[in-house]
């Protein structure tokens, strides 16, 4: 019986020997890496804060912040946004605020034009008569540390809440790529 691979072995050996003796050619250069997208500026994003329906008589309120990229280019977010409660006269109220690694640790990601990044908000509502209670009519946002960014659009806030958002503390979750994860904490 004849082995069909027998004539192939000398041919492969010859090809390998010739390849090893060949003059080195030019090595193709890798394609230039794309420049990383710049950080999203506050002016690149429009915010809507959507109040979630309270499930019980608790004073804890939950809202989803949706940040739509309205710039004509990709930009990146990493970490947290700044959110502040302000009066109709633009006075920022001194609500104690904590930025949390919730629902997951912060990480950088790209937000493409007309796409969104999300963050969860939780706060404890209070009676205006309480000493540490702050009442305002707008929520302002900023991608840096400014406390006087533009006003976010408020969605699903009861009419009475639009002019009287009360809180004595605010917790801000890390920015997320998907809305269904932003409130998982």
3D architecture notes:
With 185 residues, the protein is mostly beta strands. It has a single domain (42-182), classed as Immunoglobulin-like (Sandwich). The protein is built from three helices and twelve strands, in the order H-E-E-E-E-E-E-E-E-E-E-H-E-E-H. It has helices at 8-21, 159-162, 179-182, and strands at residues 45-51, 60-69, 75-77, 82-86, 97-99, 109-111, 116-124, 134-136, 138-142, 153-155, 165-167, 169-172. The chain has a six-stranded mixed β-sheet, with no helix packed on it. It has a two-stranded antiparallel sheet with strand order 3-6. Strand 1 (45-51) and strand 2 form a beta hairpin. The longest helix has 14 residues, at 8-21.
Question: In brief, what are we looking at here?
Answer:
The protein is mainly β. The chain has 3 helices and 12 strands.
Which properties best describe this structure?
globular, mainly beta, signal, two-stranded antiparallel ribbon, six-stranded mixed beta sheet, Immunoglobulin-like, 185 residues
The shape is globular
Distance between the termini: 72 Å
Count of extended strands: 12
- Average pLDDT figure: 85
CATH architecture classification? Sandwich
Strand order of the largest sheet: 5-12-7-2-1-10
Low-pLDDT segments: none
Per CATH, the class reads: Mainly Beta
- What is the total number of structural domains? 1
By CATH, the topology is: Immunoglobulin-like
List the helices and strands and how they pair.
Elements (H helix, E strand, L loop, with lengths): L7 H14 L23 E7 L8 E10 L5 E3 L4 E5 L10 E3 L9 E3 L4 E9 L9 E3 L1 E5 L10 E3 L3 H4 L2 E3 L1 E4 L6 H4 L3
Parallel strand pairs: 1-10, 5-12
Antiparallel strand pairs: 1-2, 2-7, 3-6, 4-9, 7-12, 8-11
Keywords: Signal
Organism: Actinoplanes campanulatus
InterPro entries: DUF4232
């Amino acid at each position: 019986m004849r082995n069909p691979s027998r004539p192939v072995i000398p041919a492969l050996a010859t090809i390998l020997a010739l390849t090893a003796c060949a003059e080195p050619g030019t090595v193709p250069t890798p394609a230039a890496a794309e420049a990383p997208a710049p950080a999203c500026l506050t002016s690149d994003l429009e915010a809507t804060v959507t109040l979630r329906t309270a499930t019980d008589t608790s004073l804890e309120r939950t809202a989803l912040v949706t940040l739509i990229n309205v710039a004509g280019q990709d930009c990146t977010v990493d970490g947290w946004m700044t959110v502040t409660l302000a009066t109709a006269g633009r006075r920022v109220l001194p609500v104690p605020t904590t930025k949390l690694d919730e629902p997951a640790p912060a990480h950088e990601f790209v937000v493409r034009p007309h796409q969104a990044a999300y963050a969860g908000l939780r706060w404890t509502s209070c009676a205006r008569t309480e000493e540490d209670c702050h009442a305002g009519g707008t929520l302002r946002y900023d991608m840096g540390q400014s406390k006087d960014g533009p006003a976010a659009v408020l969605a699903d806030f009861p009419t009475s809440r639009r002019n009287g958002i009360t809180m004595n503390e605010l917790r801000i979750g890390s920015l997320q790529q998907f809305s269904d994860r932003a409130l998982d904490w």
